[in-house]
Amino acid sequence: MNNLKNKIISSLILVLIFILILSLLVCFNVNYKNTNNRIEILGADINNNQQNDNYINNKINNNQKPLVKIQNNKVNLSDYENSVVYLINTTRVSNGLNALAPNQILTDISRNRSSDMIARNYFSHFTPEGKNILIILKENGVSYSKAGENLAQSMPAYIGSPEAFMNAWMNSPSHAANILRNGYGMIGVGFAGNGGRRVLTVVFKNF
Questions:
Q1: Phi and psi of 141, rounded to 5°?
Q2: Which of 7, 17, 37, 137 shows its CA 20 to 30 Å from the CA of 161?
Q3: In this structure, are residues 149 and 133 in contact, taking their beta carbons and an 8 Å threshold?
Q4: pLDDT tens, 140-197?
């Protein structure tokens, strides 16, 4: 009888140990996956000056082809892009600033910036050829006195909601300052993604 009880107790202990080990493995796997979930952001603001103009003209002379060909159509935004505009404008208005008007040329530039980063697997204010938003705006005939660019990417793609990107920007003083910069009047928002990654580009400009 005692032997039977001992066997039962031993079996229960082994089952409990197995369950504990299995639980630890599951927890480790979940935590491991979470370490790969990340949102990254980049931001830049630009004021027009002679030094910028010299830099841009030099780059354009050395890179004759524009990164994108822009067509000036009526503004169209996807639901995702429209959500980003709404979040930015709501934040600006709640801080006593003007809402930004969506602009098709800026939207086309933003979309092509995001698509290019997806297609060529980089994440930077500079293209592999060294072009930044200064050069791209000028190449496409867009003049400005104030301009800026906020970037965001997520891996895996599904964690990159408009709200998640907006929260990341607003939790970064430099990105929040760009969103809340006085003097901006226009905005372009461009989203691109694949199964594992999302990239969002926002371009700001004065009227």
A1: 75, 20
A2: 137
A3: yes
A4: 999 999 999 999 999 999 999 999 999 999 999 999 999 999 999 999 999 999 989 9
Closest CA to 203 of 118, 130, 104: 104
Q: How far apart are CA 109 and CA 115, in angstroms?
A: 10
State CA 63 to chain mean position distance.
Answer: 26
In the chain, which residue ranges form alpha helices assigned H by DSSP? 2-36, 50-62, 79-94, 104-119, 133-139, 162-170, 173-179
- Look at the chain and count its residues: 207
Counting beta carbons within 10 angstroms of the beta carbon of residue 155, is it exposed (0 to 12), middle (13 to 18) or buried (19 or more)? middle
**CA gyration radius for the chain?**
25
